[in-house]
Write a structure and sequence with these properties.
Number of helices: 12
Strand content: 25-35%
Helix content: 25-40%
Distance between the termini: 83 Å
Largest sheet: 8 strands, mixed
Number of strands: 16
Amino acid sequence: MKLLPGLLAVCLLLTGCGGLPYPREMGDMALLRTMGVDREARGLTVTVSTGLRARGLQGETEEPLVLSAARPSLDGACLAMQGQSDSYVYFGYVDQLLLGEELARESVLPALDYFARDRELGLGARLWVVRGTRAETAVRAGEERGVDQRLETLRTDGEMGAALLSRTAGEVYADLLERGSAYVPALSPAGEGSAALEERGYAVLRGERLVGFLDGEAARGLELLVSQPELDVIEAELEENRAAVRVTGARTVCRLASGGEESVELSLVCRVSAQLSEYDRPLDAGERERVTAMLEARESARIQAALEQLQGWGTDCAGLGPRGALISPGLWQRTADRWPQAFAQAEVRVQVRVSLHT
């Protein structure tokens, strides 16, 4: 006798042979939010945190659950944590991935590969490099409140903000596979104060390894290169006046040109929008020119600082070459295969143009 397909499916479910996951109550699950991965001599250490957990019906919370396991593989470490909690450890809510500096200097690809393949994890998680210490230390830095809320305040999602540019594991993974370099926001545990973590510029990856960090003005220069400046204010002291100017946006256009033989010239034009937010009295024409010149000089110096380091590493993590290819496709076709070397030796011209609005 043949069973109809629908009846067969019902029979399989009733006998426990179905392919559906075992149902669980949310209260029986430990929903992880943050994962840190560190390199060990003979494997990896994975540290995870749930963040603050809800308890009861009155909005009470309890401390985060933090688990850690060391194994030769990521999969083994994640599986080992199932036996460390009375609740089912669920990785499907992990939206923050922290990589220790030692691991990043060796290779970030194993962690990104695992997030791409695992059925619960995904490449939508926000990626960070923990500078100067282990990712485990950063995950545990939040103590009774956890670090997930602090990580949310440190990212800007590409909008104007006062922290770091946010990058997902998928964005970094794609950059590494497509152009061989990428930038990742960096952080470290805070020394004093209420904040568990503090921003530490950007980690620069070449191939699959960390080659260095962009700090301070160079970090701000990278943000200008990728047309995503942070919320920033310049305060100008004039002879009989003062002005506070807020940077509201920037767009950098790249052009490639042949420099003779096999050399390449790179021209960058960065158009910055700024808003005059405070002053003692309305600025006259001369004062506006001086403020504009000050802002152009500062933003140009920031771009130059970033380029100096990036060219020293032969690492175009801002994608200047591919963006220049849109205007000079023929030259890019002849240069793409050797772009890291060409970028390192390229003569770069930078021009900043500021539009100052009242």
